[in-house]
Amino acid sequence: MNPRALVFDAYGTLFDVHSVAQRCESFWPGAGARLSQLWRAKQLEWTWHRSLMRRYAPFSQVTHEALGYACAALSLPLDEDRSAKLMQEYRGLAVYPDVRAAHAGLRGAGYRLAILTNGSHDMIDPLVAQSELAFDAVLSVDEVRVFKPAPEVYALAAKRLGVAAGEIGFVSSNCWDALGAKSFGFRVWWINRAGAPLDRLDFEPDGILSGLGELSAVLAR
Amino acid sequence: MNPRALVFDAYGTLFDVHSVAQRCESFWPGAGARLSQLWRAKQLEWTWHRSLMRRYAPFSQVTHEALGYACAALSLPLDEDRSAKLMQEYRGLAVYPDVRAAHAGLRGAGYRLAILTNGSHDMIDPLVAQSELAFDAVLSVDEVRVFKPAPEVYALAAKRLGVAAGEIGFVSSNCWDALGAKSFGFRVWWINRAGAPLDRLDFEPDGILSGLGELSAVLAR
User: Fold this and answer.
1) What is the mean pLDDT of residues B71-78?
2) Which of A145, A200, A202 has the highest number of chain B CBs within 10 A, making it the mutation to test binding with B?
3) B199 contacts A69? CB cut-off 8 A
């Protein structure tokens, strides 16, 4: 049975968070990749910590604070100008090479397409706009004030799209996000571009794809 | 005002989780440190993911699964014998060099001492027993089926010790654990042995110490 809506994760799935590394490198030669990795790692950790502590803050704040931490940890001097420029990079992240054709194909096939993201609207809306990818809905966890992989997040998508959980196809490159969605009841494809092992969280995705380009063929079966 | 009870985190605070690296190195020369780091990272991530997904599993299971993941990710062949031996290492972790004298001093000063840990009793009880450190209580999140830094965990300590949150002194080397405890209402000392920046989670510890040896002096003030 074909899903009635396809819901995509944004950061790491459609948009390459590490495309900020180049700007990082231009500011601190030799440290760009390390900074980008630590920035992303802390950003994610703090979404989990804040959710468990019940101290939600918008993703833009968490991302900004994670940048400050990462620079401090790596002894990279960060001033307001560089901080603002790097936060702006996050609003213009590169689209993965396999995204545009896949998006066009799925849209052409008549699927309802949505984004379900940790990103607050101040971050995700400009990013989606500049990407020129069209979605029927861009849903942010900001509405439920808890981050992925809490079930409230996936419930938001089902509710806002008016589609039963089992009729939503969910697509994420973040394995824990894919498995959180599966635990909630979505049909799930994990985009495993890096060839990583599966996370061990009691669930398995319905399919594991090496890129978004394979999605159309899988859905057509 | 002196705390009525002192509550310690176990893994990373009293016990050095990376003391497993030596055994890892003996099994896979050249990969011991990397394996130990990835094993610990995944172990922690999955405590957060499972808690948010509401799919709790005991820490012994999570630790075992994280070992399997880490070996797979690093292409290190893991058989049942090595797996059992490494899990056994976790029941005999080294005590940090600053622990014994600090523990003896605080006990001599008459403090009630407890452990509050992610560890399930099948892991933590043998570890504490072999360390020969005496505690008035060893409390496991297993009782509330959610991991740190959820407030239910810290509430368990207050309830089981019969001490108000504000009269508990909490000690952890894991900054997010310290701040989760602070968010709940404990007095908190973060043991920052590595000189890391402070996590940015809306709270600050009451004190930042470079080792457990400083705790007695701080409490005597």
Assistant:
1) 98
2) A200
3) yes
Asked if A49 and B180 come within 8 Å (Cβ–Cβ), the reply is: yes
Contacts of B66 in chain A (CB under 8 A): 200
Q: Which residues are registered as beta bridge partners of B208?
A: B190
Nearest-neighbour CA in chain B from A71: distance (Å):
10
Locate B105 and state its tokens.
């001093």
- pLDDT beneath 50, residues of chain A: none
Q: Which residue from B91, B172, B85 is spatially nearest to B125, judged by alpha carbons? A: B91
Q: Largest Cα–Cα distance in chain A?
A: 54
Of B53, B72, B149, the CB nearest to A201: B53
- Going by pLDDT thresholds of 50, 70 and 90, the confidence category of residue B2 is confident
Tell me how far the alpha carbon of residue B168 is from its chain's centroid: 17
Total structural domains within chain B:
2
Residue numbers in A near B76 (CB within 8 A): none
Q: Which residue of A has its CA nearest to B148?
A: A52
d(CA A60, CA A39): 13
Q: Answer yes or no: do B107 and B146 share one domain.
A: yes
The pTM score is 0.97
CB contacts of A50 in chain B (<8 Å) are 201-202
Taking an 8 Å cut-off on Cβ atoms, the answer to whether A200 and B150 are in contact is no
Question: What's the pLDDT score for residue A220?
Answer: 82
Domain end point (choices B89, B108, B131): B89
Contact A197, B70 (CB under 8 A): no
pLDDT over 80 (residue B180):
yes
Q: Which of B46, B51, B196 sits opposite A52 (nearest CB)?
A: B51
Of A68, A89, A110, the last residue of a domain is A89
Query: What ipTM describes this predicted complex?
Result: 0.97
Chain B residues 142-181 with a CB less than 8 Å from chain A: 146-151, 176, 179-180
Same domain (yes/no): A67, A161:
no
Q: What is the CATH number of the domain that holds B181?
A: 3.40.50.1000
Give the per-residue pLDDT at A111.
96
What confidence category does residue B221 fall into, taking pLDDT thresholds of 50, 70 and 90?
A: confident
Q: Determine the length of chain B.
A: 221
Name the band, by pLDDT with cuts 50, 70 and 90, for residue B220: confident
Region of B96 on the Ramachandran plot (φ > 0 left; ψ -120 to 50 alpha; else beta): beta
Indicate whether B30 and B72 sit together in one domain.
yes
